[in-house]
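Input structure tokens:
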């Protein structure tokens, strides 16, 4: 008996701890601490559904308790028969109407938010082109890494995405090999990346929340996509609009690969050109490469999406990627000895983009030029339509 009581106590304690710990989380990772407009709206909807659920549970529990307390056999006797209410139309209307009302209360904001958050029409022009006035990022999901393309600025990076705060960022999601799912828990729900179409949605990254989380949010693949699915992570750096534009300008300023400075790095550059350049780019242009873009590799926080960024981990990753990310496409693609691996890692650790090297004014001018072109093409179409009407 004592053993059963002790087991029950431990089970109860673990259950209580699980309930409370499930609500713990950090701003950069937890869906229960929303860090943007979309995340907050979805969180509010979740709270509304929980309130409705608790209301139903409380009412049913109270009614059940009252019924049990009032109709105990010791009070009513052995011959007591409860009143038959099967044909009571008033009660039938009440307990049919209440669930309908509760469903309507939940359905109205749900349907409204579904259509609101699915509206990405502002990200494209009337011709179906990318709207240069909006923040648009094309996301391509591979086994097991992510590519991020900024089509208006013609910049490509991978694994670590940079976004502006307090502005809508539109995402066009594509899968390259198998189905994946794009998810930044702190800022909104997940959306699949399909290989036979494009899914689009938007997120907003709150400036105050970004400051609290050192401007870093974590993203994950939320669809089982292979043996290294759990390691298919990425990071999001949320910057104020001015710093975001400077980052884009800095990336645009990289026209040629960084030239190695040290002797080891120079040797690694040559090996990289012979063994790795076929899959990896070292300039921020061109999407759809076989491997992640490495233009700003030295500036990143992680290696392979989850390893601490240092030369030791980099060498281990190059030496045996299969042991760190099973099923990845690098496995068996090259043969390098330890000396060559050290040289390549030295070169990669020098691939950095100089802060402040880009011309923000030129970036703005190119955006305005793109906007003017779109407006001009729209004007030409309207003019041609008017001419046709006059001709008729």
């Amino acid at each position: 008996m004592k053993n059963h009581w002790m087991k029950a106590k431990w089970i109860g304690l673990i259950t209580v701890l699980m309930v409370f710990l499930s609500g713990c989380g950090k701003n950069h990772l937890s869906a229960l601490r929303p860090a943007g407009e979309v995340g907050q709206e979805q969180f509010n909807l979740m709270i509304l559904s929980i309130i409705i659920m608790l209301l139903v549970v409380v009412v049913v529990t109270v009614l059940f308790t009252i019924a049990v307390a009032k109709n105990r056999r010791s009070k009513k006797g052995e011959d007591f028969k409860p009143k038959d209410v099967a044909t009571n139309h008033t009660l039938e209307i009440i307990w049919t109407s209440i669930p309908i009302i509760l469903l309507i209360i939940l359905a109205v904001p749900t349907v409204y938010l579904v259509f609101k958050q699915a509206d990405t029409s502002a990200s494209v022009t009337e011709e179906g082109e990318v709207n240069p006035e909006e923040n648009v990022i094309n996301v391509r999901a591979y086994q097991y890494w992510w590519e991020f393309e900024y089509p208006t600025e013609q910049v490509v990076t991978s694994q670590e995405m940079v976004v502006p705060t307090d502005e809508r960022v539109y995402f066009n999601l594509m899968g390259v090999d198998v189905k994946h799912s794009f998810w930044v828990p702190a800022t909104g729900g997940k959306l699949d990346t399909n290989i036979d179409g494009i899914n689009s949605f938007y997120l907003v990254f709150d400036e105050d929340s970004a400051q609290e989380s050192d401007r870093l949010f974590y993203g994950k693949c939320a669809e089982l996509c292979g043996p290294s699915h759990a390691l298919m992570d990425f990071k999001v750096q949320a910057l104020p609009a001015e710093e975001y534009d400077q980052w884009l300008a800095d990336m645009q300023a990289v026209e040629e690969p960084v030239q190695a400075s040290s002797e080891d790095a120079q040797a690694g550059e040559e090996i990289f050109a012979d063994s790795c350049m076929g899959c990896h780019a070292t300039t921020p242009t061109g999407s759809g490469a076989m491997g992640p873009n490495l233009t700003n590799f030295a500036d990143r926080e992680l290696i392979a999406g989850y390893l601490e960024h240092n030369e030791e981990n980099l060498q281990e990753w190059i030496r045996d990627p299969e042991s760190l990310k099973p099923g990845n496409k690098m496995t068996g693609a090259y043969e390098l000895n330890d000396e060559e691996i050290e040289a390549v890692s030295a070169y990669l650790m020098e691939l950095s983009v100089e802060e402040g090297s880009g011309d923000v004014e030129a970036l703005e001018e190119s955006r305005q030029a793109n906007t003017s072109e779109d407006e001009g093409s729209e004007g030409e179409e309207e003019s041609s339509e008017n001419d046709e009407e006059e001709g008729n």
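The mean pLDDT is 86. The two ends are 97 Å apart (CA to CA).
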